[in-house]
Each structure stands twice: as C-alpha cells, then as structure tokens.
Design goal:
- The chain is an alpha/beta fold.
- It folds into two domains: 146 residues, Leucine Dehydrogenase, chain A, domain 1 (Rossmann fold, 3-Layer(aba) Sandwich), CATH 3.40.50; 144 residues, Rossmann fold, CATH 3.40.50.
- It is built from twelve helices and 13 strands.
- The strands form two sheets. The protein has a seven-stranded mixed β-sheet with strand order 1-3-2-4-6-7-5, with helices on both faces. It has a six-stranded parallel β-sheet with strand order 10-9-8-11-12-13, sandwiched between helices.
- The model has no long low-confidence stretch (mean pLDDT 96).
- Bound molecules: 2'-monophosphoadenosine-5'-diphosphate.
- The site of 2'-monophosphoadenosine-5'-diphosphate (ATR) has 17 residues, from helix 7.
C-alpha cells in the first residue's frame, strides 16, 4: 500500500505526481491531516481486484483550498475523490451538482468528475444506515434513536439520515445545547414525520429518555483516546438497546464497554467506515465494489 502523503504542489503536473510509480494516481482522499486515513487500505485493494490500473492517494489540503484541489484533480483526469475532515462542508460549495443526501446533510464526502464537472455525494449517512442494518438486522424507519454528541459533523449527518429514513423520534444530546437546538430547528422544518428533542449531556433525565429509545449512538469525539471515559452514565444502557459508537479506534470505547456490561448489543464505527467506502466506490465504478476485499483491507489497518 502507498503510504505517501501528497501536497497541493504535487498536483502541478501528471509527470511529477506519477514519477517512480507504475500506475497513475486516479483517486484521492482529501483531508487535513490525512496521514492517518484508512481509506487507501480499502480502496487500493478494490482497484487492484477489479483490474483497474490506478493508485488511490492521500492528499493533504489546507483549509480554504478544497476547491483549488478539486479543480486540479479534475484537470489531471482523476476519476474522483473522498473528502474528509475538515473539508466536507467546503466541498459542497465546490460542486456543480450534489445528490439529495449531500444536500440534506449539507456536506459532501465523495466526488466524481463528470465531463469536466465536479459532482458530489454524501455516503456517510447512507453508510450509517447500512451499518445499522448489518450490525443489528434492523432498519431506521420507525425507530427511536438517541444521538450523543450531535453537535459535530458526524452527529449532524446521522441525525439527518435518521430523518430521511423516517425514524419515529430522534433525541439529540450534546454538551453545548445551542448547537443541537439550531440543528433540530432545521430538521423539524424539513422532516415533519420525525419528532426531534434536544437534551443536555448533564440533564438528570437523560437516562430515563435513553430507556425509551431503541438505538443509542455516540457521535462525540469522547472515546478516541483509550483512557477517555464514556460521555454518558452507565445506567443509561439497558439490555433492549442497540448501541453504536462511530469511533472504531479503539474498537471498544468505554461507551461500548458500559453498554456490554448492561447487556446491550453493541457495534463500533468500522461498519460505517466500510459502507461509506463501498458506496463511494460504487459511485466511481457502479456495481463493482468488492465488499469482502474492502472489508479485509480495512481490517488490516484497524
Ligand atoms: P466536529 O465533528 O465538527 O469536528 P468535534 O469538535 O469533534 O466536532 O465534536 C464532536 C462532538 O463531540 C460535539 O458534539 C462535541 O460537543 P460540543 O458541541 O459541546 O463541543 C462533542 N464533544 C467533544 N468533546 C467533548 C467532551 N469532552 N464532552 C462531551 N462532548 C464532547
């Protein structure tokens, strides 16, 4: 696997970009930082398995220069790109066209260059829906969901996907209430068949509200460090709960450990990462994503 991180200056010419490589760069993940990205481990084996002559590279792009990066990739004849933190919102503005999920979520994580234009998709939300189906053999329509740490980008994407799919109730939980209140206002206006409620992370009623939900999700960054505590009290979990943490490294956060102790069924963010990648690959190469190869590639680095 190619572990190099490319910079904007490396896009100056195709010759420079592909020097010392036997395959041309055709796909990239754009982020800042991007060195840690697991996407190449999933997409390069997929390209190889499909017999596609190309490299999937990591491209570090400073904040404010996403449009420039995408225009360069377009001019160089790239097939497409993935966009990761912190560029998913800016990428939306760089697109000539975006799909419905990207428009609703307000962020783009997948780009395909189509006849000189930049087209954007969001596969994070749909990837999450697939992950829930795979992990818990259950689907979002009609579900009662609690999203902990809904103030960040992941929480916003998942809350919107739950509404798109017709969840019955979405409880937004956050340390900073203002952030989720504005999100709830926007979602309430757009999706009349889903009920939205906001509750503070330190609200004494949180566990009572959690008990009325079926699916609890952590989308906060609490748990990324191995010694992090859980964002919620362990007594919030019950055996009837499906509990999903969008974090996949470490594989078992304190949030999930507490849930397991209370008898809940748990899963981590590996499946969401995999399925957003599979859906992105299917946008670049319709119907050709090799699921098992991508799963094994991702497994090798996480
Ligand atoms: P983004 O995804 O936009 O980069 P982030 O800073 O990583 O955002 O934060 C994602 C979520 O984790 C937010 O909901 C954040 O809560 P606030 O909106 O109150 O900042 C939550 N979060 C981060 N650190 C937290 C902590 N120590 N305790 C509780 N929630 C936290």
């Amino acid at each position: 696997m190619n572990t190099d991180v490319y910079q904007l200056k490396d896009l100056a010419s195709r010759d420079g970009l592909d020097a010392f490589h036997d395959k041309p760069a055709i796909l990239a993940v754009i982020g800042c930082p991007v060195a840690h990205s697991a996407s190449p481990a999933m997409h390069q084996p997929a390209l190889d398995a499909c017999g596609i002559d190309g490299r999937y590279i990591k491209l570090e792009v400073p904040v404010g220069r996403v449009m420039e990066a995408l225009q360069h990739l377009n001019e160089l004849g790239f097939v497409g790109a993935n966009v990761t933190v912190p560029h998913k919102f800016a990428a939306l503005d760089a697109c000539h066209k975006v799909d419905e999920a990207a428009r609703q979520i307000g962020a783009v994580n997948t780009i395909r260059f189509v006849e000189g234009e930049i087209h954007g998709w969001n596969t994070d939300g749909p990837g999450f829906a697939r992950a829930i189906e795979e992990e818990f053999a259950s689907r979002l329509p009609g579900m009662r969901v609690m999203i902990v740490g809904a103030g960040g980008g992941a929480g916003q994407a998942i809350a919107t996907q739950c509404a798109i799919d017709g969840a019955q109730r979405v409880i937004l939980v956050n340390r900073t209430l203002e952030k989720i209140r504005s999100l709830a206002t926007v979602l309430e206006r757009r999706f009349s068949s889903t009920q939205f409620h906001c509750i503070g992370l330190d609200d004494p009623q949180l566990c009572g509200v959690a008990r009325q939900c079926q699916l609890l999700i952590n989308t906060s960054s609490v748990g990324l460090r191995p010694d992090d505590s859980s964002p919620v009290n362990a007594s919030c979990f019950s055996p009837h709960h499906w509990v999903y943490d969008t974090i996949y490294k470490p594989p078992l956060t304190q949030f999930l450990r507490d849930a397991v102790k209370q008898g809940a069924t748990v899963a981590n963010g590996f499946s969401m990462l995999l399925h957003q990648g599979v859906l992105a690959y299917d946008i670049w190469y319709p119907g050709r994503a090799p699921l098992d190869i991508m799963r094994a590639g991702l497994r090798s680095v996480s």
